[in-house]
Amino acid sequence: MPASASRRAAPASGARLSIGQVLEQLREEFPDLSHSKLHYLEAEELISPERSPSGYRKYSSADVDRLVFVLRAQRDRFWPLKVIKEHLQEHGVDDDAATVTSIASRPGPTAQLQPVRLDRAGLCREARVDDELISDLEQFGMLPESVMFYGAGDLEIVRAAKALAEEGLHPRHLVMVRTAAQRQAHMIRSVARPRSRPADPAAQGGAEDLMRDLGESMNSLHAALLRSALRED
Questions:
Q1: Is residue 104, in this structure, part of any structural domain at all?
Q2: How far from 49 is each of 57, 195, 204, 217, CA to CA, in Å?
Q3: Are residues 182 and 156 in the same domain?
Q4: Are both 164 and 188 inside the same structural domain?
Q5: 215 and 147, same structural domain?
Q6: 56 with 76, same domain?
Q7: Which domain-ending residue is among 129, 146, 171?
Q8: pLDDT (tens digit per residue) in 211-225
Protein backbone atom coordinates (compact mmCIF):
# COMPACT_ATOMS: atom_id res chain seq x y z
CA MET A 1 0.00 0.00 0.00
CA PRO A 2 1.34 3.48 -0.77
CA ALA A 3 3.00 5.18 2.17
CA SER A 4 0.60 8.08 1.92
CA ALA A 5 -2.33 5.70 2.33
CA SER A 6 -1.01 4.43 5.66
CA ARG A 7 -0.89 8.04 6.91
CA ARG A 8 -4.42 8.88 5.74
CA ALA A 9 -6.51 9.57 8.80
CA ALA A 10 -9.99 8.12 8.67
CA PRO A 11 -12.93 10.21 9.88
CA ALA A 12 -13.89 9.50 13.46
CA SER A 13 -16.73 7.03 13.87
CA GLY A 14 -19.94 8.71 12.81
CA ALA A 15 -18.13 11.84 11.58
CA ARG A 16 -18.81 13.21 8.12
CA LEU A 17 -16.40 15.16 5.89
CA SER A 18 -17.20 17.95 3.49
CA ILE A 19 -16.04 17.69 -0.11
CA GLY A 20 -13.24 20.14 0.64
CA GLN A 21 -12.05 18.05 3.59
CA VAL A 22 -12.04 14.92 1.42
CA LEU A 23 -9.92 16.66 -1.23
CA GLU A 24 -7.51 17.90 1.45
CA GLN A 25 -7.25 14.46 3.07
CA LEU A 26 -6.49 12.71 -0.23
CA ARG A 27 -4.35 15.45 -1.80
CA GLU A 28 -1.02 13.75 -1.08
CA GLU A 29 -1.91 10.51 -2.85
CA PHE A 30 -4.22 12.02 -5.50
CA PRO A 31 -2.96 15.57 -6.19
CA ASP A 32 -5.16 15.95 -9.29
CA LEU A 33 -8.41 15.02 -7.54
CA SER A 34 -10.99 17.76 -8.08
CA HIS A 35 -14.57 18.72 -7.22
CA SER A 36 -15.61 17.86 -10.76
CA LYS A 37 -14.09 14.39 -10.48
CA LEU A 38 -16.04 13.69 -7.30
CA HIS A 39 -19.25 15.00 -8.86
CA TYR A 40 -18.68 12.77 -11.87
CA LEU A 41 -18.04 9.64 -9.77
CA GLU A 42 -21.24 10.39 -7.87
CA ALA A 43 -23.19 10.84 -11.12
CA GLU A 44 -21.83 7.47 -12.27
CA GLU A 45 -22.99 5.93 -8.97
CA LEU A 46 -19.49 4.94 -7.88
CA ILE A 47 -19.88 6.91 -4.65
CA SER A 48 -23.00 8.16 -2.90
CA PRO A 49 -22.30 10.60 -0.07
CA GLU A 50 -25.13 11.70 2.17
CA ARG A 51 -26.61 15.19 1.85
CA SER A 52 -27.05 17.58 4.75
CA PRO A 53 -30.46 19.30 5.20
CA SER A 54 -28.98 22.27 3.32
CA GLY A 55 -27.87 20.04 0.44
CA TYR A 56 -24.14 19.79 1.12
CA ARG A 57 -22.38 16.49 0.46
CA LYS A 58 -21.10 14.68 3.55
CA TYR A 59 -18.67 11.75 3.25
CA SER A 60 -18.44 8.96 5.82
CA SER A 61 -15.36 6.83 6.49
CA ALA A 62 -16.88 4.12 4.28
CA ASP A 63 -17.44 6.66 1.50
CA VAL A 64 -13.78 7.72 1.64
CA ASP A 65 -12.58 4.10 1.60
CA ARG A 66 -14.75 3.38 -1.43
CA LEU A 67 -13.50 6.52 -3.17
CA VAL A 68 -9.87 5.56 -2.54
CA PHE A 69 -10.50 2.11 -3.99
CA VAL A 70 -12.07 3.60 -7.13
CA LEU A 71 -9.19 6.04 -7.63
CA ARG A 72 -6.51 3.40 -7.10
CA ALA A 73 -8.24 0.93 -9.39
CA GLN A 74 -8.27 3.57 -12.13
CA ARG A 75 -4.71 4.72 -11.56
CA ASP A 76 -2.92 1.47 -10.78
CA ARG A 77 -4.91 -1.25 -12.51
CA PHE A 78 -6.21 0.89 -15.40
CA TRP A 79 -9.71 -0.46 -14.78
CA PRO A 80 -12.48 1.42 -16.61
CA LEU A 81 -15.31 2.70 -14.43
CA LYS A 82 -17.68 0.01 -15.69
CA VAL A 83 -15.36 -2.72 -14.39
CA ILE A 84 -14.89 -0.91 -11.08
CA LYS A 85 -18.64 -0.56 -10.64
CA GLU A 86 -19.21 -4.25 -11.39
CA HIS A 87 -16.50 -5.24 -8.92
CA LEU A 88 -18.01 -3.06 -6.21
CA GLN A 89 -21.49 -4.40 -6.86
CA GLU A 90 -20.26 -7.97 -6.58
CA HIS A 91 -17.58 -7.70 -3.91
CA GLY A 92 -17.80 -4.28 -2.32
CA VAL A 93 -14.61 -2.87 -0.85
CA ASP A 94 -13.41 -6.19 0.56
CA ASP A 95 -10.03 -6.84 2.19
CA ASP A 96 -8.34 -7.55 -1.13
CA ALA A 97 -9.95 -4.60 -2.89
CA ALA A 98 -8.94 -2.19 -0.14
CA THR A 99 -5.27 -2.92 -0.74
CA VAL A 100 -5.16 -2.05 -4.41
CA THR A 101 -1.59 -0.94 -5.08
CA SER A 102 0.43 -0.14 -8.15
CA ILE A 103 0.64 -3.39 -10.12
CA ALA A 104 0.94 -1.86 -13.58
CA SER A 105 4.11 -2.88 -15.43
CA ARG A 106 4.52 0.62 -16.83
CA PRO A 107 2.96 4.04 -16.22
CA GLY A 108 0.37 5.16 -18.74
CA PRO A 109 0.23 8.64 -20.24
CA THR A 110 -2.09 9.86 -17.50
CA ALA A 111 -0.30 8.20 -14.60
CA GLN A 112 -0.05 10.43 -11.54
CA LEU A 113 3.56 11.27 -10.74
CA GLN A 114 4.99 12.30 -7.39
CA PRO A 115 4.97 16.11 -7.48
CA VAL A 116 8.38 17.80 -7.65
CA ARG A 117 9.57 21.39 -8.09
CA LEU A 118 13.11 21.61 -9.41
CA ASP A 119 15.28 24.41 -10.71
CA ARG A 120 17.55 23.70 -13.66
CA ALA A 121 20.44 22.49 -11.51
CA GLY A 122 18.08 20.31 -9.50
CA LEU A 123 16.64 18.79 -12.67
CA CYS A 124 20.13 17.90 -13.88
CA ARG A 125 20.98 16.42 -10.50
CA GLU A 126 17.81 14.34 -10.14
CA ALA A 127 18.00 13.00 -13.71
CA ARG A 128 21.80 12.64 -13.58
CA VAL A 129 22.35 14.52 -16.82
CA ASP A 130 24.38 17.54 -17.84
CA ASP A 131 22.97 20.89 -18.90
CA GLU A 132 23.66 20.13 -22.55
CA LEU A 133 20.93 17.50 -22.69
CA ILE A 134 18.46 19.94 -21.11
CA SER A 135 19.36 22.54 -23.73
CA ASP A 136 18.91 20.00 -26.53
CA LEU A 137 15.49 19.00 -25.20
CA GLU A 138 14.48 22.65 -25.10
CA GLN A 139 15.79 23.25 -28.61
CA PHE A 140 13.72 20.40 -30.03
CA GLY A 141 10.53 21.27 -28.15
CA MET A 142 10.49 18.55 -25.53
CA LEU A 143 10.98 20.85 -22.55
CA PRO A 144 9.68 24.41 -22.06
CA GLU A 145 12.24 27.15 -22.48
CA SER A 146 13.09 29.90 -19.99
CA VAL A 147 11.22 28.49 -17.01
CA MET A 148 12.31 28.85 -13.40
CA PHE A 149 11.07 25.48 -12.19
CA TYR A 150 10.36 22.04 -13.64
CA GLY A 151 7.76 19.49 -12.58
CA ALA A 152 7.45 15.72 -12.40
CA GLY A 153 6.51 15.40 -16.07
CA ASP A 154 9.64 17.29 -17.11
CA LEU A 155 11.79 15.01 -14.95
CA GLU A 156 10.18 11.95 -16.54
CA ILE A 157 10.94 13.30 -20.03
CA VAL A 158 14.58 13.98 -19.16
CA ARG A 159 15.10 10.53 -17.66
CA ALA A 160 13.62 8.84 -20.74
CA ALA A 161 15.67 11.06 -23.06
CA LYS A 162 18.82 10.19 -21.12
CA ALA A 163 18.23 6.45 -21.57
CA LEU A 164 17.71 6.92 -25.31
CA ALA A 165 20.72 9.22 -25.67
CA GLU A 166 22.94 6.63 -24.03
CA GLU A 167 22.11 4.34 -26.95
CA GLY A 168 22.70 7.02 -29.59
CA LEU A 169 19.15 8.36 -29.95
CA HIS A 170 19.54 12.07 -29.15
CA PRO A 171 16.77 14.70 -28.95
CA ARG A 172 17.25 15.70 -32.59
CA HIS A 173 16.33 12.14 -33.57
CA LEU A 174 13.14 12.20 -31.48
CA VAL A 175 11.25 15.10 -33.02
CA MET A 176 8.84 12.68 -34.71
CA VAL A 177 8.03 11.18 -31.30
CA ARG A 178 7.19 14.63 -29.89
CA THR A 179 5.09 15.47 -32.94
CA ALA A 180 3.19 12.18 -32.73
CA ALA A 181 2.42 12.75 -29.04
CA GLN A 182 1.13 16.27 -29.75
CA ARG A 183 -1.12 14.99 -32.53
CA GLN A 184 -2.47 12.21 -30.32
CA ALA A 185 -3.20 14.70 -27.54
CA HIS A 186 -5.03 16.93 -30.02
CA MET A 187 -7.17 13.99 -31.20
CA ILE A 188 -8.05 13.04 -27.64
CA ARG A 189 -8.99 16.60 -26.67
CA SER A 190 -11.13 16.98 -29.80
CA VAL A 191 -13.20 13.98 -28.69
CA ALA A 192 -13.40 14.85 -24.98
CA ARG A 193 -13.89 18.62 -24.98
CA PRO A 194 -17.40 18.64 -26.51
CA ARG A 195 -18.53 16.53 -23.55
CA SER A 196 -17.29 19.05 -20.98
CA ARG A 197 -19.79 21.76 -20.02
CA PRO A 198 -18.52 24.63 -17.80
CA ALA A 199 -21.73 24.73 -15.77
CA ASP A 200 -21.82 20.96 -15.20
CA PRO A 201 -19.08 19.66 -12.83
CA ALA A 202 -20.07 16.04 -13.49
CA ALA A 203 -19.67 16.56 -17.24
CA GLN A 204 -16.25 18.11 -16.66
CA GLY A 205 -15.21 15.13 -14.58
CA GLY A 206 -16.52 12.81 -17.28
CA ALA A 207 -14.45 14.60 -19.91
CA GLU A 208 -11.35 14.30 -17.73
CA ASP A 209 -11.95 10.57 -17.31
CA LEU A 210 -12.57 10.14 -21.02
CA MET A 211 -9.25 11.82 -21.82
CA ARG A 212 -7.57 9.51 -19.34
CA ASP A 213 -9.13 6.38 -20.83
CA LEU A 214 -8.41 7.44 -24.40
CA GLY A 215 -4.82 8.24 -23.44
CA GLU A 216 -4.33 4.78 -21.96
CA SER A 217 -5.89 3.14 -25.04
CA MET A 218 -3.71 5.24 -27.34
CA ASN A 219 -0.66 4.26 -25.31
CA SER A 220 -1.58 0.56 -25.51
CA LEU A 221 -2.13 0.78 -29.26
CA HIS A 222 1.22 2.51 -29.76
CA ALA A 223 3.01 -0.11 -27.66
CA ALA A 224 1.35 -2.96 -29.56
CA LEU A 225 2.17 -1.45 -32.95
CA LEU A 226 5.77 -0.83 -31.90
CA ARG A 227 6.19 -4.42 -30.66
CA SER A 228 4.71 -5.70 -33.92
CA ALA A 229 7.02 -3.50 -36.00
CA LEU A 230 10.08 -4.60 -34.03
CA ARG A 231 9.24 -8.25 -34.74
CA GLU A 232 9.22 -7.62 -38.47
CA ASP A 233 12.32 -8.64 -40.44
A1: no
A2: 6, 25, 19, 31
A3: no
A4: no
A5: no
A6: yes
A7: 171
A8: 888 888 888 888 888
Residue 109, in any domain of the structure: no
On whether both 16 and 95 belong to a single domain, the answer is: yes
In-domain check, residue 106:
no
Assessment of whether the complete model's pTM goes beyond 0.90: no
Mutual angle of helices 61-77 and 35-43, in 10-degree steps: 100
**Which pLDDT tens digit goes with each residue over 83-140?**
888 889 888 886 454 444 433 334 555 555 667 889 999 999 999 999 999 999 999 9
Q: What is the 3-state secondary structure (H, E, C) of the chain?
A: CCHHHHCCCCCCCCCCECHHHHHHHHCCCCCCCCHHHHHHHHHCCCCCCEECCCCCEEECHHHHHHHHHHHHHHHHHCCCHHHHHHHHHHHCCCCCHHHCCCCCCCCCCCCCCCCCCECHHHHHHHHCCCHHHHHHHHHCCCCCCCCCCECHHHHHHHHHHHHHHCCCCCHHHCHHHHHHHHHHHHHHHHHHHHHCECCEHHHHHHHHHHHHHHHHHHHHHHHHHHHHHHHCC
Residue 57 lies in a domain: yes
Domain that residue 57 falls in: 3-99
